[in-house]
Amino acid sequence: MRKYGLILLALGLAGWIISYIHRMMVPPLLPMIMDELRISNTQAGLLMSGFMISYAIAQIPAGYLSDKYGARKVVSLGIGAFSLATLLIGFSRCFEQFLILRILFGLFAGTYFPPITAAISGAFPTEKRGKAIGVFMSGTSIGTALAPIISVPIALLAGWRYAFIVLALPGFLIAAAFFLTLQDKTHEIREYKKGGGFISLKFLVACVVPFLGLATSMGFTTFLPLFLVNERGLSIEIAAVFSSLIPAIGFLGNIFGGFVADKFDKGLLVSAITLTSAILMSSTYFSSNRTILPVLL
To answer: What is the chain written as a DSSP string?
Structure first.
């Protein structure tokens, strides 16, 4: 079980990283995409919003599908399908085609998280489960950081379409590896804690605050490369490096955040971090100094 758990964790991390590379490679390529397809800022925003909405919707039936048909089929087919959608984006000829493929990408990408986290949790004993999920979740920052610094060089060398085509290929390999490796039956998780009801003020706050934070973060990261290129006159290459700073530093935050949270009041800590982030994000609009910009980011 230990060897299988480590293999599954490695595959799960690889799948999570490629998922984030696919979803976050659009923002750094927007200057090129918008120029060729003649799309507006509003339409550019829809490319990310369409993905996020379909991604959120897919989360609901993903667990049910995994229970009914098995995590092996759902995970491998989901990765293969969202990689195919990414590949086909490279052949899109208009905004409408691009948007439809992004929505489809979101639907298939949304089937990954629920079954794979359940599978990883089931493959590790209770005392190691949290660490395993923590390693898996680090793929969020890794994939987001890699997306600009991998996709932009490919786009500059061969065109933005080839960035989607080339980066779709690892997804097919990961899907095949999951199909050959993932076991539908692992030991069941039986630890349950009786709660005081489904709806409470704390529950609502726990749902609303991350939602607003994610919406703000996605909006900021979507238009940051475009802002740096069009408003601050940076090259696409430099904008890609700047865009990678946020998730790269965020990776360190993921590691040390838990330790800090244990030392301070969590409510006060979240409030302080949120306020500081809002001030720094707003400051990027007013700063044109290329030395200060990466510090603010």
So the answer is: -HHHHHHHHHHHHHHHHHHHHHHHSHHHHHHHHHHHHT--HHHHHHHHHHHHHHHHHHHHHHHHHHHHH-HHHHHHHHHHHHHHHHHHHTT--SHHHHHHHHHHHHHHHTTTHHHHHHHHHHHS-HHHHHHHHHHHHTHHHHHHHHHHHHHHHHHHHH-HHHHHHHHHHHHHHHHHHHHHH--S--PPP------S-S--HHHHHHHHHHHHHHHHHHHHHHHHHHHHHHTT---HHHHHHHHHHHHHHHHHHHHHHHHHHHHS-HHHHHHHHHHHHHHHHHHHHH---TTHHHHH-
Closest CA to 24 of 151, 156, 133: 151
Whether residue 16 contacts residue 145, with contact meaning beta carbons closer than 8 Å, is answered with no
3-state secondary structure of 133: helix
Looking at 1.10.10.60, 1.20.1250.20, 1.10.3210.10, 3.10.20.90, the CATH number of the domain 2-187+200-296 comes to 1.20.1250.20
> Any idea what the Cα angle at residue 254 is, between residues 64 and 50, rounded to 5°?
50
**Each residue of 25-51: pLDDT tens digit?**
999 999 999 999 999 989 998 998 899
* pLDDT band at residue 190 under the 50/70/90 scheme: very low
142 in Cβ contact with 20 (< 8 Å): yes
Q: Does residue 189 register a pLDDT over 50? A: no
Which single residue is written with the structure tokens 């799309």?
39
